[in-house]
Design a protein that fits this description.
By secondary structure, the chain is mainly alpha-helical. It is built from three helices and no strands.
């Protein structure tokens, strides 16, 4: 079974490449001793970009992997629900 994100893999990769560029930009800002508030603004933008990717992946996981496992039932369903719970917990704590 293909992963749930396969239908928009390129969009996710594009977002990640953009975030990667933003991180390089933050490093450059620090190297150039830019005002800290301006750097924090960029860090916030990078964080939001990564959160967007994470939420998209979580939505895909819930919509495909968890939904299918729940429909089938059994121990695999409980495993997928536990994985999703742990992923959500990590996202909320970060």
């Amino acid at each position: 079974m293909p992963h749930g994100y396969i239908d928009h893999k390129q969009a996710l990769l594009t977002r990640l490449r953009r975030a990667e560029g933003q991180v390089r930009g933050v490093a450059r800002m620090i190297d150039e001793e830019v005002y800290c508030i301006d750097i924090l603004t960029q860090v916030s933008a990078v964080t939001k970009a990564l959160e967007s990717v994470a939420l998209s992946l979580l939505e895909d996981h819930l919509g495909r992997c968890v939904a299918q496992a729940t429909a089938e039932g059994g121990p695999v369903a409980q495993e997928k629900l536990s994985e999703a719970h742990a992923a959500i917990t990590r996202l909320v704590r970060s």
